[in-house]
Specification:
With about 475 residues, the protein is an alpha+beta fold. It has helices at about 15-35, 35-55, 70-95, 105-115, 115-120, 125-140, 155-170, 175-195, 205-275, 275-280, 285-315, 330-340, 350-355, 365-385, 425-435; strands at about 345, 390-395, 400-405, 440-445, 450-455. Helix content is about 60%, strand content about 5%. Strand 2 and strand 3 form a beta hairpin. The radius of gyration is 43 Å and the shape is elongated.
C-alpha cells in the first residue's frame, strides 16, 4: 500500500499563519505608500481643506452692508427671510404628505434646512455646517419612510433650492479654499448616498454637485472682481493724496529757491555797502570801520549758508533760476506773451503807473504777485483759450490787490497738456500764505473764472496752518 507524504501546512493559503503573513504584507505596503511624497502632499491638502471648513470668513458684516442706499443694505436680509418663509412650510408639507414622515420630525428637518439661510447673510460657513448636516441626516431618515419610492432622493427639490442660495452667500464671502472644500464635501455626500442606495437614487446628487460648483464659481468671481475694483479705488485715492502732497512740496521748494535769489540780492547789497563804507564815508573812525567789516563778514557767511541750504532744494534742471527774479514791472512782457498765445488780455493800468505804485514794495511780495498773475494766465491758456481776460492792480496804504478775471472761452477738444503739474492754485495759495495775504478763486455765474489775491504791503508771519 502506497503511503502519501505528509502535506506541508505552510503552503496552505487558508492557514492562520498564511493569513497573518498576508495581513502583514498589506500593512507594510500601506506604511510604505503613506510615506511617499504624493500621499503626504495629498494628506496635507486634505488637512488644509478640513481646516478651511472650520475657519469662518474674515468678515462678519452682512452682504451689501457697504452700500449707500438703505434699501440695498437690507436687501440680503429681505431675500433670506422671503426664502425661509417660502421653503419652510413647503418642505414640512412635502416631507409629511409625500414621504410619510412624522410631522414633528419633518418640521425639525425643515427648520434646520431653511432657517440658517438668515444666518448665511453674515456667517455663511456656520450656516453651511447646519444645513449640510441637516440635509444628510434628513436623507438617511427618508430611507425609512413609506413614500420614498418614486420620490427625489437624497435631496428634495426644496433642499436643492435652499442649498444653491447658500452657495451664493458662500461664494460672495468665503475664500477659495473654503469654497473648494464645500464643493468637494457636497460631491462626497452625493457619492456616499449613491453607494448607500442605488435603488432610490435618482441623480439629484449630480445635479446638486454641478449647480453648486457653477454658483460658487460665479459668485466668487463677482466677489473677487469687486474686491479688485475697491483696491484699485483705494490705491487711486492714496496715489492722488501722494501726488497732491508731492505737488505741494515741489511748489514750496520752487518758492524757496526764488526767495533765495531775492534775499541773496539784498544780502549782497549789504555786503558791498559794508565793505565800501570806509571808502565812501569820509573821516570814518577805526572802530566804525571794524563794525562795518564785521557786518560784511556776517553777510558773507549768511550767503554761504543760504547757498548750502539751497543746494538741497535746487534740482539738476534748475540752473535757469539763477537769473534775476521778475516782478510786476515786467507784467507787460508777460501780457504780450499771453496775447501771442491767442488770449486777449488787457490791463487796467499802464506799466509806468504800476511801477510808480510799487516803488517801495518788497521784492518778495513783488515776485509773489507776478507769479500769481503768471499762473492765472497760464490756466486761461490751458483751459479757456481765446477768453477775454482783464488784469487789475490796486494799491492801498496797507495792501496790494491783483484781480485776474477771464470770461468763458472755447473748450479744447485736445488738451494743451497731457499731464498737468498741478502747481497752479497750489502755488498761488502757498505764495499768499507765505506773506500772510488772502486768495479768492472760483468760477463766475455767467462763465469764466476769477482770481483775486490781496497781499499786505509789509510782510506778516505766515499762517502755520
Amino acid at each position: 500500500m502506497k503511503t502519501e507524504p505528509p502535506r506541508d501546512h505552510e503552503d496552505d493559503s487558508s492557514s492562520p499563519r498564511s493569513l497573518r503573513e498576508a495581513l502583514d504584507r498589506v500593512r507594510e505596503w500601506a506604511r510604505r505608500t503613506a510615506t511617499t511624497p504624493a500621499v503626504r502632499s495629498s494628506r496635507k491638502e486634505l488637512r488644509s481643506l478640513g481646516l478651511a471648513l472650520g475657519t469662518p470668513a474674515d468678515s462678519t458684516r452682512p452682504l451689501l452692508s457697504g452700500a449707500r442706499n438703505a434699501w440695498v443694505r437690507h436687501l440680503p436680509h429681505g431675500l433670506a427671510f422671503a426664502a425661509v418663509a417660502a421653503l419652510l412650510p413647503v418642505t414640512t408639507t412635502v416631507l409629511v404628505q409625500d414621504y410619510g414622515m412624522n410631522g414633528a420630525l419633518a418640521g425639525a428637518f425643515a427648520t434646520a434646512q431653511t432657517a440658517p439661510l438668515l444666518l448665511a447673510v453674515s456667517r455663511p460657513v456656520q450656516a453651511w455646517w447646519v444645513i449640510f448636516t441637516a440635509d444628510i441626516v434628513a436623507a438617511v431618515a427618508m430611507l425609512g419612510t413609506p413614500g420614498l419610492d418614486g420620490r427625489s432622493w437624497p435631496w428634495t427639490p426644496m433642499n436643492i433650492v435652499g442649498y444653491q442660495l447658500l452657495m451664493i452667500c458662500l461664494g460672495l464671502r468665503a475664500g477659495r479654499r473654503t469654497l473648494l472644500a464645500v464643493w468637494l464635501a457636497t460631491g462626497g455626500a452625493g457619492l456616499f448616498f449613491e453607494v448607500l442606495s442605488q435603488e432610490h437614487s435618482d441623480g439629484t446628487q449630480l445635479l446638486t454637485f454641478t449647480l453648486s460648483g457653477a454658483l460658487l464659481l460665479l459668485s466668487a468671481t463677482l466677489r473677487e472682481r469687486g474686491d479688485a475694483q475697491r483696491r484699485l479705488v483705494e490705491q487711486e485715492t492714496i496715489s492722488e493724496a501722494e501726488r497732491s502732497q508731492r505737488t505741494l512740496l515741489e511748489e514750496r521748494n520752487r518758492i524757496a529757491r526764488e526767495l533765495h535769489d531775492v534775499v541773496a540780492h539784498h544780502m549782497s547789497l549789504i555786503t558791498v555797502q559794508a565793505d565800501s563804507a570806509r571808502y565812501r564815508i569820509p573821516h570814518l573812525d577805526e572802530e566804525a570801520a571794524r563794525e562795518f567789516s564785521s557786518i560784511a563778514e556776517s553777510a558773507r557767511e549768511s550767503l554761504t549758508e543760504m547757498r548750502r541750504i539751497l543746494s538741497v532744494l535746487r534740482s539738476e534742471d534748475a540752473e535757469g533760476e539763477r537769473t534775476p527774479q521778475p516782478g510786476l514791472r515786467q507784467l507787460s512782457q508777460l501780457v504780450a506773451a499771453t496775447v501771442r498765445a491767442g488770449v486777449p488780455v488787457t490791463m487796467s493800468r499802464t506799466e509806468v503807473e504800476i511801477a510808480a505804485m510799487l516803488a517801495d514794495l518788497p521784492a518778495s511780495l513783488d515776485l509773489s504777485l507776478y507769479r500769481i498773475v503768471q499762473e492765472a494766465l497760464a490756466n486761461v491758456v490751458r483751459h479757456a483759450p481765446e477768453a477775454r481776460t482783464t488784469i487789475s492792480v490796486s494799491v492801498e496804504s496797507d495792501s496790494v490787490t491783483v484781480v485776474i478775471v477771464n470770461g468763458p472761452g472755447r473748450a479744447r477738444r485736445v488738451p494743451l497738456e497731457t499731464t498737468g503739474t498741478g502747481h497752479g492754485l497750489v502755488g498761488m495759495r502757498e505764495r499768499v500764505r507765505l506773506v500772510g495775504g488772502t486768495l479768492d478763486t472760483g468760477p463766475l455765474p455767467g462763465g469764466g473764472f476769477r482770481v483775486a489775491a490781496r497781499l499786505p504791503r509789509r510782510e506778516k508771519e505766515p499762517d502755520p496752518a
